[in-house]
Amino acid sequence: MLRYLNGGESHGKRLLAVIEGMPSGVPITETEVNRDLARRQKGYGRGGRMKIEQDQVEFVSGVRKGFTLGSPIGLQIENKDWKNWQQIMAVEPGEPVTQRVVTKPRPGHADLVGAIKYAHTDIRNVLEKASARETAIRVAVGAVAKVLLSPFGITVVSHVCEIGGVQAETGRMTVDEIRTAAEESEVRCADAAAAEKMVGKIREAKEKGDTLGGVFEVIVVNVPVGLGSYSQWDRRLGARLAFALMSIQAMKGVEIGMGFEAARRFGSEVHDEIFYDESGGGFYRKTNNAGGLEGGITNGQPLVLRVAMKPISTLYSPMKSVDIKTKEAFEATVERSDICTVPAAGVIGEAVVAFELAAAMIEKFGGDSLIEMQRNYNGYMDYVKNV
Ligand code: EPS
Questions:
Q1: Is residue 370 packed enough to be buried (19+ CB in 10 Å), middle (13-18) or exposed (0-12)?
Q2: Which of 89, 234, 269, 289 has the lowest tally of Cβ within 10 angstroms?
Q3: Which atom of ligand 1 is nearest to the CA of 344?
Q4: Can you name the residues that pair with 331 across neighbouring β-strands?
Q5: Please, which residues have CB within 8 angstroms of residue 234's CB and are 6 or more apart in sequence?
C-alpha cells in the first residue's frame, strides 16, 4: 500500500511529507523533483509570493546513494518567507500575537468554516494550512510517484483547456504535441491563439482586482489494462482519481473522458466499440470517450481527466463579509494574491494522478522492490498480449 501524509503552514518554517510504501531500488534524485516544483511556480497570473520562494526539495529519509530503500521517504521544502514571519508563526509559547491577526473571512475560502469548526478566533490558524502553499509538497510527492511510473513507460501530462471562459482547441494534436506546446506557454495552454486571449483575460481580471478560474486536463499514456477494480466501491480507479483531484484546493468538478457531454448523448454515440487485431495487436478501440476507464478499471487507452477550478477566493476588489470578532459587515481587501493559478493547478493535478497510479501499480504488481514489480509486470503483459 502506498500512502502519504503532509504537514506545514504556509508561513511556517517548512513543508513536509512522509511517503510510505515506495518499493526499493527506484532511482531518484532531488533534481528531478525540483523540476516539477519549478513548473508549479510558473504561470502568468501568479502573485508576489512566488518571487520569494524558489522551492527545493530535501530528502531526509528513505533514499541512499540515489535509490529508494523501501523505507518511508521523508521530504521537506523550506518556506523562504518564514524569515519574515518568525515571530508571528513562532512555535514557542509567548505573548499573544497582535500582528497580522485575521478576523475577516474571505467568501469562498476555508476561513469562516475553519474558524467555527476549530474554535479559532484568529483566522490565520485556519488559512495557514488551508492555503494552497501545501500543493508544493504534494507536487514533490507526485514527482516521487512519477519516478516509479517511468520505468513502465507511464507518462503524465497536463495542459490548460480553459481560463475565464476562453477555450483551447487541441482536438487534432497528439499528446506529445500538446505537452511540448503547453510547456512553452506562459499559461500552459497548447493552443497559442487561445493562450494569448487567456493572458488578456487574466490581465483584465488583475485590472479589476478580480480573479479567474478555468479547466485543465491531465492525460496519462502507456497505462496497462487492469489497474483498479470494479469489485469494491473504493477500489474503482476513476473514483480514486476524482477524489485525489477534488482534494486540491479550489477544485469544483472532475470529468473523465467525454465527461458531462456523455450525459447528453445516446449510448451508441458514447461507448467505444471493441475491435481485435489478428496480427498481434489484440483488442483495440478507435475512440476513447471512456477516458481510459471502464468499470473502475484502466482499459489500456490513455487516461483523460478534466478538472474545473473556481477563481481564487482572495480578491483585491471587495466582497461582502462579516468580521468574526465585531460581527460588523466589511468589504474585504487584501495585500497580496495570485490572480489565476490554473496553469500551476495542472502541474498539481499531474502529481495527484501520478500518486494514485503509482499506488494502483503497486497493488497490481507488488511493492517491495522495483525489480519484483518489473518481473510481475512483464509476466502480466505477456499474458495480456496473448489474450
Ligand atoms: C495562498 C496565498 C498566497 C499564495 C499561496 C497560496 O500566499 P501569501 O499569502 O503568502 O501571498 O502565494 O501560494 C503559495 C505560497 C504557493 O506556493 O503556491 C492561499 O491562501 O492559498
A1: buried
A2: 234
A3: 18
A4: 320
A5: 240
DSSP-assigned states of every residue in 159-183: EEEEETTEE---TTS-HHHHHHHHH
Q: What is the 3-state secondary structure (H, E, C) of 301-316?
A: CCEEEEEEECCCCCCC
Instruction: Give residues with Cβ within 8 angstroms of 237, minimum separation 6.
Output: 227, 228, 229, 293, 296, 297, 298, 356, 360
Could you tell me if 89 and 97 are in contact, meaning their C-beta atoms sit under 8 angstroms apart?
no
Provide long-range contacts, Cβ within 8 A and 24+ apart, for 87-95: 88/11, 88/124, 89/9, 89/11, 89/12, 89/13, 89/128
Strand ordering across the sheet containing 166-167: 166-167, 155-163, 214-221, 303-309, 251-256
- Condensed to tens digits (0 to 9), the pLDDT of residues 131-185 reads 999 999 999 999 999 999 999 999 999 999 999 999 999 999 999 999 999 999 9
Strand partners, 76: 16, 58
Phi and psi (nearest 5°) for 60? -115, -5
Ligand 1 centre to CA of 132 (Å) is 6
Q: Assess contact for 357 and 150: CB atoms under 8 A.
A: no
Model-wide pTM > 0.90: yes
Cell triple for residue 172? Answer: 487534432
Pick from 9, 10, 333 the residue to mutate for probing ligand 1's pocket: most ligand atoms within 8 Å of its CB: 10
* Separation of CA 95 from chain center: 38
Among protein residues, the one with the nearest Cα to ligand 1's atom 17 is 133
Q: How far is CA 40 from CA 32, 55, 135, 243, in A?
A: 13, 9, 9, 21
